[in-house]
Fold these 2 entries.
Entry 1:
Amino acid sequence: MHWSALPIWIGGIVLMAVGVNLAGGAARDAGMEHLQPAITATFVGFHFIPYAWAFVTRMILWLGVCVGSIGVLGVVAGMIAGPPWAAVAASVDGLVQVTIVLVWATGRLRGGAPRLGRRPAPA
């Protein structure tokens, strides 16, 4: 791990929570409460990206980019087409997240899963 992993982890959580609350509040104020699941998925996804560097794990970058991007697509689809598309995107996001983690845990993504008692190799 990088020396700043703990502050990056805490900062990511704080920024995610603030972003979800601000964007969710804006969606509610605009009468688009149905966007909340995709807004949450977007911030959950993108909050992973700095962790890839802090925890020296490439899989986290894939996780953040994929989950965050699907969340953005869900917000856009929800704005254009209305319900239930934001919720559908958030559901797909969950499946993508679980799939990426499972594939990584099997060692099929570059970098493999870390082994207990060993530091991950530098990226």
Note: Confidence is low (pLDDT under 50) at residues 112-117.
Entry 2:
Amino acid sequence: MKYNKSYEGRTFEAYIEYLQTIKHKIPKALFDFISDPQRHDLGEKSLHDCRVEKIEYECVSKGNYQLSLILAGENRIFTVKCMNISQFHINQVNFGDLYKDLITYEVGVEQDTFKNDKIVFRAKFPFEKGVIEVFSEKMEIDEALQ
């Protein structure tokens, strides 16, 4: 599995080491979620093999945009909520089967195109063609059993 671009995609242990260096820059609940190995393996608590159910983008107030990504897993619905977005990228080469079977996801702190440190969420789908990348001030990941 590949992880955060700023850490050049290494092992899960290396990803955890990277997360320790940014722990103070992200909310505790987000850190607890993304540092849990069960969220990255092939089990039922993982986002692996999730499919995109919905992408919601809205203007909350002038200059304040929010994006919610709804992912359906084996027995859970995950909601990735990004607030105060500075930029996002969705590679939508072919919406057919491209946005099912999420391969990996990563969260980190990187500079956006404006050179500001932001929390970044990056999801990768089969064949490296499907990518969702969101840079924001605040991020939450919630789950509900289905």
Note: The beta strands are 51-61, 64-72, 76-91, 104-111, 117-124, 131-145.
